[in-house]
Amino acid sequence: MLITILLLIFTVVCLPLISSNFGTPLNELQQNILFDQMTWIVGGVIAYCFIVGEITRNNSQVDKLWSIVPIYYAWHVAVAAGLPDRMVLMAVLVTIWGVRLTLNFARRGAYTWRFWAGEEDYRWEVLRKRPGFSNPWVWAAFNLFFICGYQNTLIFLFTIPILTATNNTPLVFWDYLLAAVFIAFVVLELIADQQQWDFQKEKYRRIREGMPLDEYAHGFVRTGLWSLVRHPNYAMEQAIWIVFYGFSVVATGEWINWSMAGCILLVILFKGSSDFSEAISAEKYPEYNKYQSSVPRFVPFTKFSR
Predict the structure, then answer these.
(1) Does 127 score more than 80 pLDDT?
(2) What is residue 37's DSSP assignment?
(3) What is the model's pLDDT at position 3?
(4) Which has the closest alpha carbon to 241: 147, 121, 155?
(5) pLDDT tens track for 200-258
(6) pLDDT at 268
(7) Residue range 135-148: average pLDDT?
(8) Do the beta carbons of residue 100 and residue 194 sit within 8 Å?
(9) Helix ranges, the chain (H)
């Protein structure tokens, strides 16, 4: 696990540096927005998440902001560039994604009037008990460099393709197609989250009332979209930001450009995140190994499963 984390931190530093050499270099306006404005804002968000997380011992401060700060980033960049049509379209799409995901997170108890409290990612509690991470100084470093530093940098990087659209060229057919696909993936992610919500809600209702569990006895959802892939919500999240990168291709005319790091890093993160989640699920649910062997992880109708 530690090796995976170090690899992720290494990639979030190196991949943006490597990708900056691809495509047309940033113009003066883009450099001003990126370095003179956004770098300080992202740094402030990282500091906030680390300080609040350390004081409250709730290390899910990034989770609370995951769906909120991209909306601000997108509109800040769009306004700073003079609100070109493509940037406005991209910012609207990010807003649709963010509002939907925020509402889903809120109903799980993530937000309270005490803004620092609320649900913490169950994986952090598991990880804190593992050898090495139980040391408070090690955990503080992990919180700073991975939970707060890596993830907040990643959030900004998968939003940054909007910065390629400062050229104010007219919207074309591909923009509208990408927007439609983006929204379709948001809807599929909504369905996947709702199926998970409905299953867990009914399972715990039956447990509380002492009712037979029947199909809920295996403990995890494996019907609907979850019968096609083990993580349909993760799959859609990755697809959404790959599509978002597509707008940069339309804006620049370059299939590979300097804004590509974010969607690549997100795919890498979800691979590691799903590995960790599935290891916990396999220990908790006896039937999960069979589910892994028969259902693909992210891509339906494939056998890329353990």
Answers:
(1) no
(2) I
(3) 61
(4) 155
(5) 999 989 998 888 888 888 889 999 999 999 999 999 999 999 999 999 999 999 999 99
(6) 87
(7) 86
(8) no
(9) 2-19, 28-31, 39-56, 61-65, 69-80, 85-106, 122-128, 136-142, 151-159, 173-208, 232-252, 261-284, 288-294
Contact 170, 282 (CB under 8 A): no
Per the CB < 8 A criterion, the answer to whether 133 and 139 are in contact is: yes
Q: How far apart are CA 15 and CA 243, in angstroms?
A: 19
What's the mean pLDDT in 35-47?
95
Map tokens 């890498």 to a residue. 268
Total count of residues recorded for the chain? 306
Higher per-residue confidence, 210 vs 86: 86
Handedness of CA 254, 258, 263, 268 (dihedral sign): positive
| Amino acid at residue number 29 | L
Reading the block at residue 141, the tokens are 């470093």
Token readout for 135 is 């040391």
Rounded distance between C-alpha atoms, residue 306 and residue 304, angstroms: 7
